[in-house]
Amino acid sequence: MSRRPTPDPRSRRRRLALALTPALLAVGACTDSGEPAPTSTSTPTSTPTSTPTSSSASSPTSTPPSSPAPAPVSPDDLDRATAVAAVAHLAGRIGPREGTSPAFGRAADWVEARFTALGYDVSRQRVDVPAGVSWQGAPLAAGRSANVVATPPGFDATEPHLVVGAHLDTVSQAPGAEDNASGVGVVLAVAEAVADRRTRLPVVLVAFGAEEPRGAGDALHHFGSTQYVASLTRAERGAVRAMVSLDRVGVGTVVPVGSASTSDPVQRALLEAARRAGVPTVAEADERSSDHWSFVRAGLPAARLGSTPYAGYHSAGDVPAVVAPAQLERVGRVVLAWLAPRR
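The line above is the sequence of Zn-dependent exopeptidase M28; the predicted structure tokens follow.
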């Protein structure tokens, strides 16, 4: 739900882009050719020896006005309808999307199309996943998952930037509305809000593959984010100023802000951003059960939003009705306040 006092045509264009299918996008690219108007080829009637006067000389080409600088992003730029629609599609239409399954592939295609429609450069990062057991003990074969990574045009990974991510996969028996279509939905709403707004640093947006555990311990958990961090060069690691993981963010009325230790700068910055955005929070320590932990283990600053307990956790009851649109909006507002340029 947009809070802007007047309609923003760029927001309308973004929402239209999000509604387009990849096929329609392809048609639009082919039909909108934008060919220039033909130039005049008529010859002058004067003789070759005539000297043109200043009045007959061609006028100088006018310089087009420069585009205004983008406005800074604000929590009020969030459209929660984008997050709600993502939950409905991922959990309601696609359903369970274990990280190596065909359903996960369809979900990754859909998220990639959303990022692309918003103007981001999108890439897939291969994630190899070992065999293991599901949450309820059923065997899982080894397979392949993927991270869907969206960067702004012209992005340089060796320059300071922020990362906002959420895992796209589910355990094999759950539609995963809260865990974690809610997180992906807020990432998409944030991507929409910052697409034509200024942030304090460039933002990388990631839908991680294969976060859910395939056994006990870190070695069988967080495969997508572990691969993302491992793929970074030393210069790229040094450029990551902070990462935030959105995991189970659609339940409750207070936003949990988790740190892997007792406290850290990213957690404190998120709590302060929430205060500015008028969002109630609760600080949580020793939170290591989401993708931010892959960053923290590698020495990178990171924290988590979300984790309120709910009845449908990792079950067939994790359906869209579990998710509260107002809570999605609260979390999105916290993220945008955190991304906003500091005054």
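Note on the example: The longest strand covers residues 121-129. Residues 75-339 form a domain with the Aminopeptidase fold (CATH 3.40.630.10).
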